[in-house]
Amino acid sequence: MAEHQPQSQQQFGGQQQQQQLQPRSHQVVKAATAVTAGGSLLVLSGLVLAGTVIALTIATPLFVIFSPVLVPAVITVGLIITGFLASGGFGVAAITVLSWIYRYVTGKHPPGADQLDQARHKLASKAREMKDKAEQFGQQHLTSGQQQSS
């Protein structure tokens, strides 16, 4: 711990020495530049705020007057844009699926084909099992029916 304090004091002292090495005029120029930039941005933000208030003051009566037209127009435009985006998305999805199916059918092995083949084999084996069980059940049902009638 005792070693750590002198090191931090040395670093702090080094920063003080570095600041003292810069001439006073550089520090004054830096401060003047910062004040000028900050002040001009503050004035600009004030002008933008004033312009926004004036624009809202002028536009508010126009919005109130034209709202019976503007609101349905905005809703209609929104629905039209949503429809075009949805139809485009569905079209891209359909083209992607059709190209995947074409590559799968032509044997080009698209991504996911292995999983599809495994699922197809599982379904086929389950279907065979169910068919065999149904045949066994049907034969048992027929033999039990024949025994009862005799």
Automatic annotation (TrEMBL):
GO terms for cellular component: extracellular region; membrane; monolayer-surrounded lipid storage body. InterPro entries: Oleosin. Its main location: other. GO terms for biological process: lipid storage; post-embryonic development; reproductive structure development. It comes from the Eukaryota. It is found in: Lipid droplet; Membrane. Residues 127-150 are annotated as: Disordered. It is a multi-pass membrane protein. Keywords: Lipid droplet, Membrane, Transmembrane, Transmembrane helix. The chain crosses the membrane at residues 41-67, 73-102. Residues 137-150 have a biased composition (Polar residues). Belongs to the oleosin family. May have a structural role to stabilize the lipid body during desiccation of the seed by preventing coalescence of the oil. Probably interacts with both lipid and phospholipid moieties of lipid bodies. May also provide recognition signals for specific lipase anchorage in lipolysis during seedling growth. This is Oleosin. It comes from Trema orientale (Charcoal tree).
